[in-house]
Amino acid sequence: MKQILVADDEEVLRMLITDTLEDEGYQITEAEDGDHAYELMINNDFDLVILDYMMPGRTGVDVAKEMSDNYKENTPLLMLTAKTQGTDVEQSIEAGIHYFMGKPFSPIELAMFVEEILS
């Protein structure tokens, strides 16, 4: 079973993502902020990490940058965020984000995108 980390400070959004992806057969671990996400990523092997851009503690960009600077650089990172301006996307890519999806999003589109990333 594929393991996915979902890091977002909005509990309702984490629940929506978790429910959507669990229905597709993925095992989900949740983090409520960037610091918790970073700790989980250091101590676990995930097949995919979904990060929000703006979170308390480390931002999604901070987490991606720190992870790309160490041994976890090959873990696919998906930025799922409302910050979709060109500079936000550029900063995300420079930090090591592999995929980008804007909020609001369709749960069905998210599930299809995750399937595409992991296949």
Automatic annotation (TrEMBL):
<dbReference type="Pfam" id="PF00072">
    <property type="entry name" value="Response_reg"/>
</dbReference>
<protein>
    <submittedName>
        <fullName>Response regulator transcription factor</fullName>
    </submittedName>
</protein>
<keyword id="KW-0597">Phosphoprotein</keyword>
<feature type="modified residue" description="4-aspartylphosphate">
    <location>
        <position position="52"/>
    </location>
</feature>
<dbReference type="InterPro" id="IPR001789">
    <property type="entry name" value="Sig_transdc_resp-reg_receiver"/>
</dbReference>
<dbReference type="InterPro" id="IPR050595">
    <property type="entry name" value="Bact_response_regulator"/>
</dbReference>
<dbReference type="InterPro" id="IPR011006">
    <property type="entry name" value="CheY-like_superfamily"/>
</dbReference>
<feature type="domain" description="Response regulatory">
    <location>
        <begin position="3"/>
        <end position="118"/>
    </location>
</feature>
